[in-house]
Design goal:
mainly alpha, 3-stranded mixed sheet
């Protein structure tokens, strides 16, 4: 890979948003439409995407690439060791966050990005069932 490609890839990866992504906004709009009131950017371990403080429910919307979705994830062809380490670190952190929140009495709901695209009603039901 030449220098230009490395710089270009770096800029592309840096431009990927971590908050207020399209799947997050889509899900939040439907939850609000259903009368569910939530908080975002709530100060809680793991920085959940959507929080229902009164019910102690924390919702994470996991990107299929960044968290190695068993349905969608495809390992990149370049820089394999870097990506393998990065993704595995994300997965281990998710497990630790789930455990910490559960120990604090919170219910954790993790929704894959593709679930919002393909079956948003199912994602909403999973959240409501945990409240």
């Amino acid at each position: 890979m030449d220098i230009k490609s490395v710089d270009e890839r770096s800029r592309n990866m840096a431009a990927i948003k971590s908050k207020n992504t399209k799947p997050e906004i889509t899900l939040r709009k439907l939850l609000f439409k259903r009368g569910l009131r939530y908080r975002i950017h709530y100060n809680l371990t793991g920085k959940p995407d959507i929080v229902f403080p009164g019910k102690k429910v924390a919702v994470f919307i996991d990107g299929c690439f960044w968290h190695a979705c068993p349905v969608c994830y495809r390992e990149p062809n370049s820089n394999k060791e870097f990506w393998r380490t990065k993704i595995n670190t994300n997965i281990r952190r998710d497990i630790v966050v789930n455990r910490k929140l559960a120990n604090l009495g919170w219910v954790v709901v993790r929704i894959w990005e593709h679930e919002i695209k393909k079956d948003i009603e199912g994602a909403v039901r999973r959240i409501m069932d945990r409240m």
